[in-house]
């Protein structure tokens, strides 16, 4: 199991402003956390900050907690069903901080108090004041802490402090020189360590996965339970007629192409042949730092929309809509891109997700011609072409660069919409709704209201494909292709 910590930009600012003092002395602070539990990673989400009252801590060059402060904070955490965080600052330090003997003794002593009252492990955190870097450790017992691999601050600018001993800085390879020259080795070292999930392996998702791999990311995941069909070949660039004839899964095709494009010295591609609308898919998604939403259905988009806030995983979402005249000529094309993080409106507030469509999608009514006609609705558009899907993936990847590299010192922009017929780029003026159920559930973690449901329909699709026997000639061609791919991979 891996461990990490995440917080909103607002929470980070509040804790930083308290811990970094004008007189240069250390300070201490308490907070609470909830857990977000994935398959391989558990993340502590900072929930609330508990500021000290008069006399509850001592500042004397070094700073120390009083037992009264720790007890008060522990009881507040227990009342909310949350765990306790104890923080302190190293004003003159930078990067991931280790523990001094005094800090070790303090946290190990308070571990029993926190566990006894909250029934959850104590979380210790340190702020390096020179560069606002965080470090974190979980105290599962008083003997030694278990160190987190990263601490993430999630806002329109994603910032990550990495534990270099656990998640090492990837080496810059000769094929990454142009990439590194665009934003520097330090930024590349952070971007390359991000674990990024692409949900949807169609025309846009397939392109995004390859370009992430080419950028030097060491870990990319692709989630899709569908297979390549002949009808996909005019958009899924890189998928072959053999892929369609074999009915290969989209995740397998994406894995093959991403491996071919990868520039990292050691590249891992994870195949998730599951649905994001199932709890199995949600658990897998919680292992990632950033998610690309390359799906076009209301239900999966609603799940991803929620995770961006409840679990503080930035979700980069977009899509395309093409419109034609009755005689078949093209009327217009619109593609959009936006990043879902605290501080930016969710899909529902943007008007990109209609809540009432979620139960219809669950029941399959959005694909039922009789229902569509009876409800006087328009059939959902499935049109897309290779020449324009590249524009969608480019828009999403530009959001990723803004989120992680902060060009010009800025983060992600307001939601963008490109209108092809007028060749205009529109910035959305949408704001967050004050009663938005998605945004008000920020940092809910494992206490989130579930949107995903256990379903057998996607499992049946996967089972049918994986058990179907293909003609001998296709199997021979597939074996030859696999042999060639392995031979090519040895050239790297």
UniProtKB/TrEMBL annotation:
Write down the SUPFAM superfamilies for this protein, in alphabetical order.
Activating enzymes of the ubiquitin-like proteins
Entry's InterPro entries? Answer: ThiF/MoeB/HesA, ThiF_NAD_FAD-bd, Ubiquitin-activating_enz
Source taxon at top rank: Bacteria
THIF-type NAD/FAD binding fold domain residues are 176-349
Which protein are we looking at?
Answer: THIF-type NAD/FAD binding fold domain-containing protein
Q: Which organism is it from?
A: Arthrobacter humicola
């Amino acid at each position: 199991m891996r461990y990490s910590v995440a917080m909103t930009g607002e929470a980070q600012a509040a804790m930083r402003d308290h811990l970094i003092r004008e007189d240069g002395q250390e300070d201490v602070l308490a907070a609470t956390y909830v857990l977000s539990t994935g398959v391989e990673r558990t993340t502590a989400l900072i929930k609330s900050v508990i500021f000290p009252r008069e006399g509850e801590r001592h500042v004397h060059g070094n700073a120390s907690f009083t037992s009264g402060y720790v007890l008060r904070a522990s009881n507040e955490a227990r009342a909310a069903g949350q765990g306790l965080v104890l923080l302190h600052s190293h004003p003159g330090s930078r990067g991931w901080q280790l523990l001094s003997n005094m800090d070790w003794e303090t946290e190990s002593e308070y571990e029993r108090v926190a566990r006894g009252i909250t029934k959850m492990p104590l979380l210790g955190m340190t702020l390096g004041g020179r560069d606002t870097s965080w470090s974190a450790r979980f105290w599962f017992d008083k003997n030694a802490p278990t160190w987190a691999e990263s601490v993430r601050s999630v806002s329109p600018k994603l910032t990550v402090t990495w534990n270099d001993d656990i998640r090492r800085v990837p080496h810059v390879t000769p094929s990454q020189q142009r990439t590194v020259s665009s934003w520097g080795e330090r930024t590349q070292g952070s971007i390359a360590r991000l674990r990024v999930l692409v949900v949807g392996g169609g025309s846009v998702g397939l392109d995004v996965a390859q370009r992430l791999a080419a950028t030097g990311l060491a870990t990319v995941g692709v989630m899709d339970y569908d297979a390549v069909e002949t009808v996909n070949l005019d958009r899924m660039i890189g998928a072959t007629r053999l892929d369609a004839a074999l009915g290969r899964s989209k995740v397998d095709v994406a894995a093959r192409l991403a491996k071919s494009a990868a520039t990292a010295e050691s590249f891992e591609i994870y195949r998730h042949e599951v649905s994001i609308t199932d709890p199995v898919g949600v658990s897998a998604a919680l292992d990632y730092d950033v998610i690309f939403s390359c799906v076009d259905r209301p239900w999966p988009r609603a799940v991803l929309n929620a995770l961006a806030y409840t679990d503080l995983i930035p979700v980069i979402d977009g899509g395309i809509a093409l419109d034609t005249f009755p005689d078949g000529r093209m009327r217009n094309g619109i593609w959009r891109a936006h990043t879902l993080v605290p501080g930016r409106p969710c899909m529902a507030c943007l008007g990109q997700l209609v809540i009432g469509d979620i139960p219809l999608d669950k029941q399959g009514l959005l694909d039922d011609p009789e229902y569509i006609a009876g409800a006087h609705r328009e059939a959902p558009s499935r049109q897309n072409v290779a020449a324009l899907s590249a524009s969608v993936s480019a828009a999403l990847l530009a959001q990723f660069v803004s989120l992680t590299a902060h060009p010009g010192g800025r983060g992600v922009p307001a939601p963008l919409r490109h209108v092809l017929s007028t060749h205009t780029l529109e910035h959305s003026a949408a704001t967050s709704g004050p009663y938005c159920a998605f945004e008000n559930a920020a940092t809910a973690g494992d206490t989130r209201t579930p949107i995903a449901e256990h379903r057998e329909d996607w499992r049946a699709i996967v089972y049918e494909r994986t058990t179907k026997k293909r003609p001998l000639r296709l199997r021979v061609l597939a074996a030859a292709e696999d042999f060639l791919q392995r031979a090519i991979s040895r050239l790297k």
